[in-house]
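User: Please predict the structure of the protein below. I'd like the answer in structure-token form so I can feed it into my own downstream comparison script.

Assistant: Understood. Taking the following sequence of 404 residues as input:
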Amino acid sequence: MRPLRACLGAAAAVTLAAAGTTALVASNASGATTALSNRWYAAAPYLMPLDNNPPDAAAIMDASGLKAFQLAFVLAPNGGGCSPTWGGTAAVSSDTAVQSVINTIRAKGGDVSVSIGGYGGTKLGQTCADAASTAAAYQQVITKYGLHAIDFDLEEPEYENTAAIKNEIGAAKILQQNNPGLYVSVTTAGTADGTGWFGKQMLLEAKSQGFTPNNFSIMPFDGGFSGAASQTSALTNFNAILQSTFGWDQATAYAHEGFSGMNGRSDTGEYFTQADFQTVLDYATSHNMDRFTFWSLNRDRQCTPVDNNGTTSGTCSSVAQSAWDFAKYSVKFAGVTPPTTTPTPTPTPTPTPTSCKTAWSATAVYTAGNEVSYNSHNWKAKWWTQNEVPGASEWGPWQDEGAC
């Protein structure tokens, strides 16, 4: 997931829980002991409780019928170490702010999952010595908040680190064993083929360790996608990867597969509307998929102007919508009818063409944040680079900012 915007054996099938099924029961500082059904944790959209202008969770619940939230992200401390923090800066051990958000949600009959990792930042799998110490750090989070669900968002740059992924998958397996009933999702990058080389290596690591989460979810955005048809095609291809990796039949693979979308305008200028979400939701439910979520609730509201001047925001969607429109698709996936709303959103205007930045030069040195144009697209450097062609590698130093 973007910052705007990451024990059963391998042969065992994790059956999709029906609504009303109780998962792990645990106590926590707020006194909550009752879990939601697995279907709700599978439908929980991402919410940054401390960044990107956090919306009022209670207001979202009232307006959309949503009960579950995926709180993001737990990382290693920015200065290094093997203790959990929110965003690398706020120690989980001394947290009161996120706990207050959780208490509010639980007081209204809801619950949360916590997502670890995400796009960027230093992950605990990178800094902890081994799987056991990584699991011990995450166990602190589970124990502090009395969690019934947890999400491993394994993507750039962590999933290029073989040792880090071994630690994360090993930790996930330990947590699954030590917390009976814990709902575990694993989220990774999506491509037109399903997932890329690093995603496939992560799946092979899970297979080698005999680890089967409730689902492996892909994020089919920021990779040249265009609407729902390209996303459902990627989900079909990812299903084939799950079959070939774990030896599952098609139905078992779908029962372990999840979708994690991006509402509105993506980082690379793709657009996903409410109609796209409905199409993917229909695909997910008709194939009995295990998870349907999106990044993020912080963005589930209309920008001013609607298209946000043709840019991607961490706090609004850049498409015409009523507040919390996209949350209602998660509610539908959980098997509940969302409340009706009366406002009719204004049409999304045609994005204004973006002017091109200075042309990229093979001899120039670029540092993080520098912008150039190449092949009728603008690009932003993610780190120091020289003589690396923008767009030559999906995981290269350049972030595509869209056509110009």
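That's the full token string. The longest strand covers residues 68-75.
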